[in-house]
Amino acid sequence: MKRKAFLIESKPGLSEEYKKRHNPIWPELKQELKKHGVCNYSIFLHENSESLFGYFEVEDEALFEKLGESEVMQQWWGYMTEVLVCESDQSLKAKEEMLSEVFHLD
């Protein structure tokens, strides 16, 4: 199992909308994530900065890499660009910064 983590930012004042859009998450997106080997997925909000930290695990990196090609994932990214900071107005998904693991304790 490979652990992955990322940072994203909600647009100013839209963290509550971000939370709403995840509760509940689209059933077809949940199914697509699992189909691509994603598990143990959590997203945390830092209220003061409206920054979001995501953590998940993947079974197979190659299978996970194909997730972005799925129609459901692309629709979700488009939907979420309304509430997340993106590289530009034309971005198809939010600006996402992947993190490197420094320490892990089982």
Automatic annotation (TrEMBL):
UniProt gene name: rhaM
NCBIfam families recorded: YiiL_rotase
The keyword Secreted belongs to this UniProt entry's keyword annotation: no
GO terms for MF: L-rhamnose mutarotase activity
Keyword Electron transport recorded: no
Keywords of this entry: Carbohydrate metabolism, Cytoplasm, Isomerase, Rhamnose metabolism
UniProt-listed Enzyme Commission number(s): 5.1.3.32
Protein name (Swiss-Prot/TrEMBL): L-rhamnose mutarotase
GO terms under cellular component: cytoplasm
Superkingdom to which the source organism belongs: Bacteria
GO biological process, one term: rhamnose catabolic process
PANTHER family: L-RHAMNOSE MUTAROTASE
